[in-house]
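Friendly challenge for the regulars: who can give me the C-alpha cells for this chain first? No prize, just bragging rights.
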Amino acid sequence: MAVPASEQCPVGRQLRDWRRRRQLSQEALADLADISPRHLSFLENGRSVPSRAMLLRLADRLDVPLRDRNRMFTAAGYAPVYGEHALDDPSLEAARRTIALVLRGHEPYPALAVDRHWQMHAANRALVPFLRGVAPALLEPPINVLRLSLHPDGVAPRIANLGQWRAHLIERLRRQVETSGDPVLDDLLQELLSYPAPDHDESPDPAAIAVPMRLRTEAGELSFLSTTTVFGTPVEVTLSELAIESFFPADAKTAKVMRAMSLVGRVLRFKLPRLK
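First reply, four minutes later:
Bragging rights claimed.
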C-alpha cells in the first residue's frame, strides 16, 4: 500500500541520510555523481527537486537498495521505477525455478533461500539434521533463520562453537543494520543480543579459511562453511532482496556423513508451495 505523501520522508532528507550512512561528505558524493557540492546541498535541503535521472544517479552512487529507491522516487513525486511482486507471482516463475534448481543441486549439503529480514522461503532436504530437537514454535512460518539458529530452544544448544558462530552472525547482522537502516533488522539484532550465550573467547584457527559452524549430531560433530549467493542483476525489488545461504562440508568426515544420509529429494516447502 502506498504511503500518503504527507507521511513520506522528504526526498532530500532521504538522500542526506543515505549519504551519511555511507559515510560520505557532500563533497565526496558530489564528486562521485559529477555535480557541484552546492547543487547537492540544494537537493538535500529541499531547495531543489532532483530529476528522475539525477535520483537514479545518486541512488546508484550511494548503493541504495531498490525498495528504498522506490521510496525516493515516490517522495519526489515520481512513479516507482522498480517493480515488486510476491515470490509466487507468475512473473517470478523463472526466479523460482532457478532457486529450486540451486537448492536441489546443492544436495546432499544444506541450502536455504532467505529474504532481507532473514525469513526462510525454501530449503532443501539436507537441512533436516539442523532442525532436529528445535521447538515447534520456531518452525512456524514465517521462520526466521537467525532466530532459529541462536534461540536457546533452537539450533543453538547443538552448535559446538556457539560463541564463535554467534559472534559471526551478530556482526553480520550489525553490518546489515548499519548499511540499510532497516528498523526490522535492528529489532531482530536487539532480540538476538538478549539471548543467553557463552562468552566468545575462541581465537581463529590460523589454518582456517572461514568461521565454521560445528554442529553436534547423532553421527558426531559435523563442520560446515557457509556462502551467500544473490541474483547478479535484479531490477525487481523482491528478487533483489533474496539470497541463498549454502553450507559446504568443512572436512572429509562431514562430507562422508552427509552423503551417507541420502537426503537428496524434493525441496522442503515453506512459503513457496510452487517452488518445485
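The CA atoms of residues 18 and 24 lie 9 Å apart. The chain has twelve helices and six strands. Your move, everyone else.
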